[in-house]
Each structure stands twice: as C-alpha cells, then as structure tokens.
Amino acid sequence: MPRLLKKDREGLAVRRPGFLRKTLEDFAMAESFAEAGLQDQAAGVVAPRVERRKIVSVSTDAEFPQPLMRQAMSLAGRLRSEVVALSIGRLPVEAPDAETGEQADVRREAHLQAAKDLFISRADASAKEYEREARSLGIPFRHEVRFGKPGEVIERMCAELRRVEFVLATREQKQRERFSVSMPVFEVTG
After folding, report:
1. pLDDT at 114 over 50
2. Is 55 within 8 Å of 83 (Cβ atoms)?
3. pLDDT in tens, 37-72
4. Would the pLDDT of 86 be above 70?
5. Distance between CA atoms of residues 24 and 43, nearest Å
6. Which of 118, 135, 143, 186 is the residue whose CA sits 20 to 30 A from 126?
7. Rounded Cα distance, 130 and 114, in Å
8. Given the DSSP bridges, would you call strands 5-8 and 11-14 parallel, antiparallel or unpaired?
9. 70/76 Cα distance (integer angstroms)
10. CA-based nearest residue to 86, from 115, 50, 127
11. Confidence bin at 4 (pLDDT 50/70/90)
12. 74-90 as b/e, with b when 16 or more CB fall inside 10 Å?
C-alpha cells in the first residue's frame, strides 16, 4: 500500500488527498451500515480494500506434486489464506544452430512458443484438479504460469501479489533448481 503521508519542512502532508478522502468516506459508510445492522453491505464496501494473505505453492515442473498441494490446502484452510499455485517453466536453451537468417529465427520462435504452450496446457490441467478441491473446501485458489529463473520469478510474483505469508516448494525441486528468495520458503517432503 502506498504511503499516504510524507514529512516535509512544515510537518506532515498528505501525498494523495483524493485517495485518503475516498478511503475515509468508504470506512465511514461501512461503519454506518454496520451500526444499522447491515453487515453484508458494510462488508461489501470495505471488502475491496481488504487483501487476503497468500500461500504461494511453487512447482518448477508442469505438474504439481500431490504432497505440495495437500500441504498448501491444509495450511490455507487453517490460516484462512488464498492458495496461489505458481508454475515456473524454464525457457528452452537454444542449441547452436547452423541455420541463420529470418526463416531460422521464425522456426526457433515457433519452437519456443510450442514449448511454452505445451508447458502451460500441462500446468493448467494439473492446477484444475486442485482448484476443484480448493473450491469444495471454500479455499480461494488461483493458478499463475510464469517463465524464467525460479528465484527471480518467485520474487517478482511475491511483490506483485502482496501479503504473501510464505512459499511452499518440494525439497527435490528446491535443491534441483537451487533457488533462494527473500521470503520464507518451506520445503515439503513426501
């Protein structure tokens, strides 16, 4: 959340008065609804500003390991958090090619896109299974697919998501990929 106050020579000044005014008006409206016994309306006014805590479940394979997702669902249920299933694909390393020119570039690009599409379709199929389970348990769930180095992708994703409680990954994937991030990463075994 952006800092709304800044300190200057004269003291404190509001950086975004329109945002602050709107926030205060919304909370005053919610309080009025709540006092009148209209809790659902009060929650509807404030809900867009309330962000859920998240558990990021990382897989560097297209399929999510079952123990990883079971642990994520269990924790999310107890902590009332959202599960974000993050599939991280590595871009294929280009082999030195004797071909050069525009046609070779087009072929390489088509090969790269086909590899990405295959990874995405396999990751989506794996995540769908867990999404159904999460929905049946009342756990918010979403699936994200990103490509790149796992450590960098996780850092970007956590910054994008905000309110990430922690990251789950399997011990095997973490050791194989050798990623480290500034967030607490809990290893799941089994």
Report:
1. yes
2. yes
3. 877 777 766 665 566 889 999 999 989 999 999 999
4. yes
5. 15
6. 186
7. 25
8. antiparallel
9. 10
10. 127
11. low
12. ebbeeeebbbbbbbbbe
Region label for 24, one of left (φ > 0), alpha (ψ between -120 and 50) or beta (otherwise): alpha
Across the chain, mean pLDDT equals 81
Instruction: Decide if pLDDT at 7 tops 60.
Output: no
Strand, coil or helix: what is 73?
A: helix
Query: Alpha-carbon distance 13 to 6, whole Å?
Result: 5
What does the chain come to in residues?
190
- Integer Cα distance of 45 and 64 in angstroms: 36
Q: Please give the order of strands across the beta sheet that includes 54-59.
A: 141-147, 82-89, 54-59, 164-170, 185-188
Nearest 5°: the CA angle 58, 59, 62 is 145
pTM, full prediction: 0.69
Q: What's the CA gap between 59 and 174, in Å, rounded?
A: 9
Each residue of 100-113: pLDDT tens digit?
677 877 888 888 88
- The three-class DSSP label of residue 36 is coil
d(CA 18, CA 14): 9
